[in-house]
Amino acid sequence: MRATYVALICASAVPAMAEAPFLQLPLDCVYGETCVVEDYVDADPTDRQHDFTCGLKSRNGHRGTDFALMSDAKLADNVQVLAAADGIVQVTRDGVLDQPYTAAIAPQLKGKECGNAVRIGHPNGYQTLYCHLKKGSIAVQTGDAVTAGTPLGAVGMSGQSNFAHLHFTVLKDGQVVDPFSPTPKDTCGWDGETLWLTDLPYSTTGLFTASFTTWMPRMAHVQSGAARRVDATPQDDLLLYGFAFYAETGDQMTFEATGPNGPIFADTVTIDKGQTQLFRTFGRKAPDGGWMPGDYTGTVKLTRDGQVLAIRNAQIRIE
Q: Would you state the pLDDT for residue 71?
């Protein structure tokens, strides 16, 4: 089995919407090494979802592109969010806490789901929106003229977010534009059009989810979500699993988990046989005396030949 792996190079593609801005990578990272797209714009207007290639890398109603860092710990590095194109700052917001989104804090975030944010206006009715920035990091003000590459703030976890990432949206007269496929289409699939000035490889291989569990699951439990745990006792074993699609032989899945006292495990597993769907699990038995109560985070990363294809995050609370 061989999954599609396409390089998107804007220099060889001319957008049908000629007045649209071409875009640089909107954060200071090395794509495929220190950041990767976790979810693309949902190109399906129904209650289903698919990305611009008709692939699986989106969520129903997702209105932007999520650029994920390699772990939540990278928030401490203050990775800079950058203006993707020249323009004028229209709106900024700061002061929203960086914390994993839960149902308990949803009421206080109503109207602030984007978290700390910057919106930039561009010619011909285009705008770019940068969401979930770190509290206190906003570096521009309304009315500022910016050029592509101007620092706007740092990647955070504010608003409706539970992992370290930038949610980036392109708008035209208030309507979402997918920068990977900017012209609306009635047919399914990518036609080669893109607004990106930089090489952003796309692979059909990805991760449906990553979750903690307290027991060794079977595929049926992973597929149904029955294996997922969001809380546990200090005496429970802790396991982290990644549920992948279109993984190939030789791909690697890396598991990392941290708790209140720091790292608790890290390991990399090589996929011995590619499959349409598969999962892998790694974890630790409860230590003598049990786990310390508190919040634990996990990261599952899928790589091929050293390039990151997908990353997913998980949380569990021990109490």
A: 86
Q: What is the DSSP letter of 155?
A: B
* Count of CB atoms situated within 10 Å of the CB of 300: 27
Strands 231-232, 307-318: pairing is parallel
Neighbours of 190 (CB within 10 A): 19
289: Cα separation from own chain's centroid: 36
Residue range 206-318 in CATH 3.30.930.10: no
pLDDT at 12 over 60: no
Report the CATH number of the 7-202 domain.
Answer: 2.70.70.10
Would you state the pLDDT for residue 72? 84
Residue 18: pLDDT band by 50, 70, 90 thresholds? low
Token representation of residue 165: 């990432």
Alpha helices by DSSP H, listed for the chain, are 219-224
Partners of 81 in the beta sheet?
A: 27, 153
* pLDDT surpassing 50 at residue 254: yes
Q: What percent of the chain has pLDDT over 70?
A: 94
How far are the Cα atoms of 46, 62, 184, 185, 254 from residue 16, in angstroms, in the given order?
A: 25, 23, 10, 12, 40
CA distance 280 to 162: 22
Q: Is 42 exposed, middle or buried (CB count within 10 Å of its CB: 0-12, 13-18, 19+)? A: buried
Among all chains, which residue has been given the structure tokens 């539970």?
A: 162
Which residue ranges does the chain devote to CATH 2.70.50.30? 206-318
In a 13 Å sphere around the CA of 228, the CA atoms on its Cβ side amount to: 15
pLDDT in tens, 185-230: 777 778 888 999 998 999 999 999 999 999 999 999 999 999 999 9
